[in-house]
Specification:
The chain has about 775 residues and is α+β, with helices and mostly antiparallel strands. Among the domains are: about 340-460, no CATH class; about 465-495 and about 510-520 and about 545-675, no CATH class; about 690-775, no CATH class. It is built from 30 helices and 14 strands. Strands 1-3-2-10 form a four-stranded antiparallel beta sheet. A four-stranded antiparallel beta sheet has the order 8-9-13-14. β2 and β3 (about 45-50) form a beta hairpin. The longest helix is centred in the first third of the chain and has 37 residues, at about 180-220. The protein is elongated.
């Protein structure tokens, strides 16, 4: 057995991957049934009885091409005016390798569904007249009348000069005369061509719905693999094209079937055998070759797809490319048959045909050009296997391709990435090469590589199931807009982008970004006027505390945000979220009937939190709450608050995290794990004595066994920037409570706004504050 790599068959571009499948399939089916193949560092490796020279000889002398035909397409070679170079070469050859191809083409031409061909100009006019009578009044009918009148006008002009009716001549004769006597017949021939094109378009449109299904019942069996790769026919009779082959074998103006016939005949029938062999060696082994022809690569190789400066260097419009690349690329698509539709029936992805094919997710692209949802339609995840496998095994892998998220099939690129990270894919796959089919120019698409995604288990992704119903409700809300606000769309898109990054690298940094994105969207929705239509019927809710643990980057910002968000309701007041987002105090999964408790305003984060604290104090006094309304399920060390107090934190990060973690249901599992992880502070520093003094008046419990009465004037003084007066009032309140503060001055240069905001944060190790402020009690 020989074992070697094929350097021309790589995972990128898409044509390289498909070439590998083609070589593997054709060798296994037509030459060496025991051949094995695998992927090795992005290049296909084959184990076979054939030597490299034997492979070249096989393809040039023995390879039987698949009958790739598309008789339903314009330009396919089966309609008047189409290029017939490839079809004619195949019909005229006696090469036994093309016997099946020849049989398929001949069969199509003999079908009774084809419209009768027009031989003379008068017959063309008669057909146009029938089309005019059968069409409804409007632009289409007017265009037909103009075409008919143009032919009559030019025919009358010729008749006046020659005394014979040119419309009685055969169309081929008029075409020849247009070259021989252009001054007399050129205008007539041009008008006839336009009219005939219109007729051909009409015939193609009319017969397409008939031709596609009858191809499966009438064409020889050797055509079925190509038809299976093109589209799936569903139980209700509807069809879905496999996007890797464009629209039923057509990519913009590139018609796959006719192009394939032209190229394969030029290689194996009309061309020089040694040249074809040199081209093949260049295609498979990247050997240098001269004299490449101009070949359109289409969507399979964006760098060679055509257009000025589309490849490396300064390029002209028409590229020279290896014809074998095109042949093997199309042969490779046959492995991607559409039997997977049977497995996916009944879910959201049932109308996407082809294995590992899902709806496009505009995530994971470095260019913003491809991050708009309308930029793409589908994407395909092509499996890479690192261990040698037979083609039978590989064919089974593609026909039964599995990608599941929980109990459902992955329907989008984002869900597929999650499936890869939770081992919801077939065993034996080491990685996937992701391709998005994106718009390039007009209706043309390109297959853009979007990265190699390794398959490995990432248990951190399991909590995504908690976010699914949340995002589903957001998406339903977005759809209720005639045109959703750009800020909403951008925030929602960023969540998907961060979700995708988490599936690739589920570390705390990416989870932190994800929660921040959730927070940005939550803030937009929470502060929206709920009297406006459309309405978000319920607040977003239902994440578990495990999200905080996953996003713990060791910073004070995540700890402070989680502690504030964990503030619970008292006997009279609601949780902190009722003041931020206006949720119900008793049932936080519903909006409050009145939003009077919502109190989120201020010029910056510190001011907004300070205002929140002042409002809760006022509300607690008004409702005669028994305790301070700052009891949290998560408490942070006083050391963790000092960076915020000294303006060393990222307040934008903290605010977005706070809004994000307000979606957490603290009754769910994960809280104890956070409390244990945060047993010790991030770092130790000097604790502010001023803060300790003020905080002792805002703890929900007793201070050295004494219940401290609320002193609202402290927050009012801090709000006015009068820190020393606030401290004096606090000292006075402690003395009234029979506690003995140290006789010291409280004149640290601290921001009054930050001092006020910091008082809302639940803290632990209260004894540290007491030791810094209070003298030991006397006997």
């Amino acid at each position: 057995m020989n074992e070697f790599k094929l350097p021309g068959c790589t995972t990128r571009p898409l044509s390289g991957y498909l070439k590998a499948l083609a070589v593997f399939r054709l060798i296994s089916e037509q030459k060496d049934h025991e051949a094995l193949g695998c992927w090795d560092q992005g290049t296909f490796k084959i184990r076979t009885t054939l030597a490299p020279d034997d492979i070249l000889s096989f393809f040039c002398n023995e390879y039987v091409p698949t009958p790739i035909i598309t008789p339903w397409n314009g330009g396919s070679g089966f309609y008047p005016g189409d290029s017939r170079q490839g079809i004619d070469s195949i019909l005229q050859t006696n090469d036994p390798r093309f016997a099946g191809y020849k049989q398929a083409i001949t069969s199509v031409f003999n079908w009774p569904e084809w419209a009768e061909q027009m031989n003379t100009g008068q017959e063309l006019l008669d057909v146009l007249e029938t089309m005019i009578k059968n069409s409804s009044p409007g632009k289409k009918q007017q265009d037909l009348v103009k075409l008919k009148d143009a032919v009559l006008k030019e025919a009358e002009s010729v008749k006046n000069k020659t005394s014979e009716d040119p419309l009685l001549l055969a169309l081929e004769r008029i075409e020849a005369l247009s070259s021989q006597e252009p001054g007399l017949y050129r205008c007539l021939w041009n008008s006839i061509k336009k009219a005939r094109t219109k007729y051909n378009d009409h015939v193609r449109q009319k017969t397409k719905d008939i031709i596609v299904p009858i191809c499966r019942s009438r064409l020889p069996d050797n055509c079925l693999p190509w038809l299976d790769a093109l589209c799936a026919i569903h139980a209700d009779g509807s069809r879905t094209p496999h996007r890797i082959l464009g629209t039923y074998g057509n990519d913009g103006r590139l018609e796959f079937g006719n192009n394939f016939m032209r190229i394969i005949s030029s290689l194996l029938l009309d061309g020089n055998g040694s040249t074809a062999k040199d081209y093949l060696a260049a295609s498979l082994w990247n050997q240098p070759v001269k004299g490449l022809p101009k070949v359109k690569a289409g969507q399979f190789d964006p760098g060679r797809a055509g257009g000025y400066n589309q490849g490396m260097g300064v390029e002209a419009k028409d590229f020279k490319a290896n014809p074998w690349d095109y042949v093997l690329t199309l042969e490779g698509t046959l492995v991607l048959a559409s039997s997977v539709v049977r497995r996916q029936g009944g879910n959201a992805g049932s109308r996407l045909t082809g294995p590992f094919t899902v709806h496009f997710s505009p995530v994971g692209f470095t260019s913003s050009e491809y991050t708009e949802p309308e930029g793409g339609e589908t994407e395909i995840w092509l499996p890479l296997w690192g261990q040698f496998a037979s083609f039978t095994e590989v064919r089974h892998l593609f026909s039964e391709g599995r990608s599941s998220v929980g109990r459902r099939q992955a329907g989008t690129g984002l869900e597929f990435s999650r499936a890869v990270g939770t081992l919801g894919v077939d065993r034996g796959i080491s990685a996937f090469e992701r391709y998005g089919f994106l718009k390039r120019r007009g209706d043309n698409k390109i297959a853009l590589p979007a990265g190699k995604i390794p398959v490995r288990f990432k248990p951190q992704l399991e909590i995504f199931s908690e976010l699914d119903p949340v995002l589903s409700r957001v998406d339903q809300f977005m759809l209720s807009f005639k045109k959703a606000p750009a800020s909403y769309l951008q925030a929602r898109q960023q969540i998907d982008e961060d979700l995708f990054n988490c599936t690739l690298q589920p570390d705390s940094l990416n989870y932190l970004k994800l929660i921040r994105s959730i927070g940005r969207l939550e803030k937009l929705l929470a502060l929206r006027d709920r009297n406006k239509d459309p309405k978000l019927q319920q607040p977003l809710y239902g994440l578990s505390p495990r999200w905080v643990f996953q996003a713990d980057d060791g910073s004070p910002e995540i700890r402070i945000a989680a502690a504030i968000a964990s503030i619970q309701g008292t006997d009279r007041l609601g949780p902190i979220r009722s003041n931020m987002a206006g949720v119900s105090a008793r049932t936080p999964w519903q909006w409050a009937e009145f939003s009077s408790d919502q109190h989120w305003f201020g010029s910056d984060f510190s001011e907004r939190i300070g205002n929140l604290l002042s409002y809760r104090l006022m509300d607690a006094e008004r409702k005669q709450a028994a305790s301070m309304p700052f009891q949290g399920l998560i408490a942070v060390s006083p050391y963790d608050l000092m960076p915020f107090l000294h303006e060393e934190t990222d307040d934008a990060k903290m605010e977005e995290l706070l809004w994000g973690v307000t979606l957490i249901d603290w009754k769910k599992s994960g809280l104890i794990k956070i409390q244990k992880a945060w047993k010790y502070p991030v770092a130790r520093s000097i604790i502010s004595r001023t803060w300790c003094l003020l905080k002792l008046l805002h703890v929900p419990g007793d201070v050295r066994g004494v219940k401290i009465r609320r002193e609202r004037s402290v927050s009012s003084l801090l709000n006015a920037g009068r820190v020393e007066e606030a401290c004096a009032k606090a000292v006075q309140r402690l003395k009234i409570s029979d506690l003995r503060p140290f006789p010291v001055r409280y004149n640290e240069p601290l921001s009054p706004a930050r001092l006020l905001a910091s008082l809302i944060v639940p803290i632990k190790n209260q004894n540290l504050l007491e030791e810094m402020v209070l003298q030991m009690p006397t006997e």
